[in-house]
Design a protein that fits this description.
The protein is an alpha/beta fold and 736 residues long. It has 28 helices and 23 strands. Strand 22, helix 25 and strand 23 form a beta-alpha-beta unit. Helix 25 crosses helix 26. The longest helix has 24 residues. It is elongated and about 90 Å long.
C-alpha cells in the first residue's frame, strides 16, 4: 500500500500511473499478470493497463458486461477465484492478449458505493486458488483504485480513461410533473469525497474511526431519547441504527481494512459499498431495509470523519435544479419556488414529492437511476418533465433544441395572457368553466394570473404531509380562511383528507397492504377513524364564516359511503351552530368519482350529491387495471380510448338527468386535446393546473364542439379503439 500511495502521488500522466500500479500489484502478489479493466461505456469494459499480457492489447481488448470471467465479475459485483480459468463456465479466450498460458485467475470488482467502475485481475501460470488473505488484499487495493478513479488520477486518452463527471449523460425516468427546465445542479445531499484513501498511520486512523463511532453512538442515542412521540416504525429504524452503531463485527471489519492500509474514511466507504452491493442481491424486503439502514449509518459516519456535512459553503446557483435520492414534502417545501426543476433517483409519480412538485408547478422526473452518483453541484442540466428525461451536461445541439422548444412554449404563453379575462366559449356557443387545482397558499396568486374561474380542487392533505404532528383545528381553520380570502369570492372546493396508499402521514402507522392503491385510504380512513375528519370539517365550517363552503369527499366507491360522510358533515354543522360559531352562508357537498363502481351507483346518488367531480387519474388506472406508478403499463392506455369515453359519456348523461353539476379533475383535464373532447361530450367544468388554463381555453374557443362530437361519435361507432387519430385530423384541418 505504501508503494501504491507513492505511485499515485507521482506527477505523471494517467496511463503512466495505471501502468505503474499494475507493476506494483503483480510484484507484491507474486503473479505474472495484473490487469485493470475500466468501463468505456455502460456496457463495455476495456483493458486499460497490464503487467504480463501483450502490451499491444491495451485499449484494444474489449468485452461486454457479463462476457467472460472479467465480464462476470462486473455483472455480479463479486470476485471470481479459480485455479483453472479455461475450465470455468463462461470463460472467453482473448487471443490478442497472450493469456492462454495463464491458468489461475482472480478478478475483483473496482467499485465505489455500489457503482462498478471496472475489474482488477491477477493471473498466474501455476494452477492455484488464491488465499482468503490475497482476495481480501485485492479488494482493499480495488477500493483505493476506485477512489483514485473518482478523483481523476487515471485520466488519459480514450473513452475508458475519460474524466468522470464531465461527459454528457442521459437519464430516463418517469414524469412526475410536466414542464421543461434548464439550470444547474444543486445536490440535496452533497457527495462525500474521500481525498486520501491510503492510511499514513494506521493506528491514528483506527483512533479516528473509534472516536467517530463514539460520536455516532451518542447522536443515535439522542435521536432515540427525543423520539418519544415517534411511531413504532420510526423507533424500529432508530433501534436498527443503534444495533449497527454498536456492532462489533461492523467495527472490526473497518478496523481490519485500516490495518490493511486504508484510511478511516476509505474503510467506511468500502463497508458502505459492500452493503450497497448486497442490497442489490437480497430478495428479502426486510433484509434490504436493514442493509439500507447500514448504508445510511455509514453515510452519517463518513460525514463525521470528513467534516463534509450538508453545509459545504457552496452557493446555490441562480437556476437550481434539485438532485436527490429521495426527499420528503417538508424539505421540498423549504426550497419552494426557488427551484427550476427536480430530479429524484427514486420516488414515484404519486409520491409526496410529486404531490408538492405539482402544487408548485415545478418539472419533476422520478426514478432517474444513479443520477446522484454522476451529478456534481453546478453541472449544467436540462429536465424534460413531459418525457421523463434528464440531460446532464448536455451537448450544445441538445441545449439548442430544448431552448427552441422552451422559447416556443413561452411565446404561446404570451398569447394565452390575452385570453385571461375572456370566457372559454366554443365556436358553437358552448361555455366551459375552467378551474385550477391547488394545495398550497402559494398556488392562489395563479387564480388571477391564469384566468381560472375558481379552485376546482384544493388538496388539503399537503398541510398534513409536511408536519411531524397532526395540525391543530385552529391552524387549519386559519389556513382555510386565508385560502377563501385569497380566492376573492371565487369558488373553492375543498377535498377532505386524501391519505393512505402512497400518501402516508409521518405520524400515521403504515399498514402493510398487498395493493395499497386499492386499500385503506381516503374516505375509508375518514369513516373508520372519524376523529381527524370531524376536526377538518369543523375547521372548514369555521373558515367559511358567512361565505359559501364547498366540500368534496375523495375515493367514494358506493352510495352509502357518501351518505355516511355527508351525515358526519351535517352533524358537525349542527354542533358548530349550537356552539354559536358563524355559519357558512351556503354550502354544497359533493363526491369525487374515482372508481368505476360509482359510475353505476343508484340514481339516488346522482340526485343527492350537490356536485360530482371525476377524479381522472385514479378512475383511469382502475378502469384499465393499469397502475399509474408503473411506467411499463401506465402509458399503454389512451384517455381517448373508446371504452373509457363511453363510460365518461354515461356519467355525463346520468348527471344531466339528475341536473347535478359535473366536472373533470386530473392531468388529462389540462391537456388541450383531451379537454376539448371532454367538453364535446358535455362536460361543462374542467379543473387543471394553472399553466394549462390558457392552452385549454385557446383550443376550446377555436373549436365547434358539436362538430367535434360528431367526429367522435362516428369514430366510436365505427369500431375504432381510440378516437385520437380522427380528432387530431379534424383539429388539424380546422387549423389549416
Amino acid at each position: 500500500m505504501g508503494r501504491l500511495r507513492d505511485a499515485l502521488a507521482e506527477d505523471s500522466a494517467g496511463q503512466e500511473r495505471l501502468d505503474r500500479v499494475t507493476h506494483i500489484i503483480a510484484s507484491s502478489m507474486g503473479t505474472e499478470v495484473c490487469s485493470i479493466y475500466l468501463f468505456r461505456d455502460s456496457d463495455t469494459l476495456e483493458l486499460c493497463a497490464t503487467e504480463g499480457l501483450k502490451p499491444e492489447s491495451v485499449h484494444q481488448t474489449r468485452m461486454r458486461i457479463g462476457e467472460g470471467l472479467v465480464g462476470r465479475v462486473a455483472r455480479t459485483k463479486r470476485y471470481v477465484n479459480t485455479p483453472d480459468a479455461p475450465a470455468e463456465k463462461g470463460f472467453r479466450y482473448m487471443p490478442e492478449t497472450g493469456e492462454e498460458v495463464y491458468s489461475s485467475f482472480l478478478g475483483v470488482p473496482i467499485q465505489r458505493l455500489g457503482e462498478t467502475l471496472g475489474v482488477l485481475v491477477v493471473q498466474s501460470k501455476r494452477a492455484r486458488a488464491y488465499s482468503d488473505d490475497e482476495v481480501y488484499g485485492m479488494e482493499v487495493v480495488a477500493m483505493v483504485l476506485a477512489e483514485m478513479t473518482e478523483l481523476g488520477a487515471f485520466v488519459g486518452e480514450g473513452a475508458a480513461l475519460a474524466a468522470l463527471h464531465q461527459r454528457p449523460a442521459l437519464f430516463r425516468g418517469g414524469s412526475g410533473q410536466e414542464g421543461i427546465a434548464e439550470g444547474r445542479v444543486w445536490l440535496h445531499e452533497p457527495r462525500v469525497v474521500v481525498t486520501n484513501p491510503i492510511a499514513d498511520d494506521p493506528h491514528e486512523e483506527a483512533r479516528k474511526l473509534r472516536a467517530a463511532i463514539d460520536h455516532l453512538r451518542v447522536s443515535v442515542d439522542e435521536l432515540i431519547a427525543t423520539s418519544v412521540n415517534a411511531d413504532k416504525d420510526q423507533v424500529q429504524v432508530l433501534e436498527a441504527y443503534r444495533m449497527f452503531a454498536n456492532s462489533k463485527g461492523w467495527r472490526r471489519r473497518m478496523e481490519e481494512d485500516i490495518y490493511r492500509g486504508l484510511s478511516a474514511a476509505a474503510a467506511v466507504e468500502k463497508e458502505q459499498s459492500n452493503a450497497r452491493s448486497r442490497m442489490a442481491q437480497v430478495p428479502d424486503a426486510y433484509l434490504r431495509e436493514r442493509l439500507h439502514d447500514l448504508d445510511d449509518l455509514s453515510n452519517r459516519l463518513l460525514r463525521i470523519l470528513t467534516g463534509q456535512g450538508g453545509e459545504t459553503g457552496a452557493e446555490m446557483p441562480e437556476d437550481p435544479i434539485l438532485i436527490a435520492k429521495n426527499i420528503g414534502p417538508a424539505e421540498l417545501l423549504e426550497y419552494g419556488r426557488n427551484l427550476k426543476g427536480i430530479v429524484l433517483e427514486e420516488g414515484s409519480v404519486a409520491s409526496h414529492a410529486a404531490v408538492v412538485a405539482r402544487a408548485l408547478a415545478i418539472p419533476l422526473v422520478v426514478n432517474a437511476g444513479r443520477i446522484t452518483a454522476e451529478a456534481l453541484n453546478g453541472d449544467p442540466i436540462i429536465v424534460d418533465g413531459d418525457q421523463g428525461v434528464v440531460h446532464l451536461r448536455p451537448e450544445e445541439s441538445v441545449k439548442g433544441a430544448f431552448r427552441d422548444k422552451m422559447a416556443m412554449q413561452a411565446e404561446q404563453q404570451k398569447r394565452y395572457v390575452d385570453l385571461r379575462d375572456k370566457p372559454a366559449v366554443s365556436e358553437d356557443g358552448q361555455t366551459v368553466r375552467l378551474y385550477m387545482n391547488a394545495g398550497l397558499m402559494a398556488d392562489l396568486p395563479s387564480l388571477e394570473s391564469s384566468g381560472a374561474e375558481g379552485v376546482g380542487l384544493f388538496r388539503t392533505e399537503l398541510q398534513f404531509l409536511v408536519r411531524a404532528n397532526v395540525p391543530k383545528r385552529g391552524e387549519l381553520a386559519a389556513l382555510y380562511a386565508r385560502v377563501l380570502d385569497a380566492a376573492g369570492g371565487k369558488r373553492v372546493i375543498f377535498r377532505t383528507l386524501d391519505i393512505g396508499s402512497d400518501k402516508v402521514l409521518p405520524y400515521m402507522k403504515p399498514t402493510e397492504e398487498p395493493n395499497p392503491a386499492l386499500g385503506w385510504r381516503a374516505i375509508r380512513v375518514g369513516l373508520d377513524k372519524p376523529g381527524v375528519m370531524r376536526m377538518q370539517l369543523q375547521a372548514m365550517i369555521r373558515a367559511a364564516a358567512g361565505r359559501d363552503l364547498s366540500i368534496m369527499f375523495p375515493f367514494v366507491a358506493q352510495f352509502d359511503e357518501f351518505l355516511e360522510a355527508r351525515e358526519l358533515f351535517y352533524r358537525e354543522m349542527d354542533r358548530e351552530q349550537r356552539m354559536g360559531h358563524q355559519m357558512p352562508s351556503s354550502f354544497s357537498v359533493g363526491a369525487m368519482l374515482e372508481t368505476p363502481s360509482l359510475a353505476f351507483a343508484p340514481r339516488q346518488f346522482f340526485e343527492e350529491a350537490d356536485f360530482i367531480s371525476i377524479g381522472g387519474n385514479d378512475l383511469k388506472q382502475f378502469f384499465f387495471a393499469a397502475d399509474r406508478e408503473n411506467e411499463r403499463v401506465r402509458r399503454r392506455y389512451d384517455t381517448l380510448n373508446t371504452s373509457f369515453l363511453n363510460m365518461i359519456d354515461m356519467i355525463v348523461r346520468r348527471c344531466d338527468e339528475a341536473e347535478t353539476p359535473l366536472s373533470f379533475c386530473g392531468e388529462d383535464a389540462g391537456r388541450p386535446v383531451e379537454a376539448v373532447c371532454f367538453a364535446a361530450l358535455g362536460m361543462r367544468q374542467l379543473s387543471m393546473r394553472p399553466a394549462s388554463v390558457g392552452p385549454v381555453k385557446h383550443l376550446i374557443r377555436r373549436t365547434d364542439l358539436g362538430e367535434l362530437r360528431e367526429v367522435m361519435d362516428q369514430a366510436r361507432t365505427s369500431g375504432l379503439q381510440s378516437v385520437r387519430e380522427p380528432v387530431m385530423d379534424y383539429l388539424f384541418r380546422r387549423d389549416t
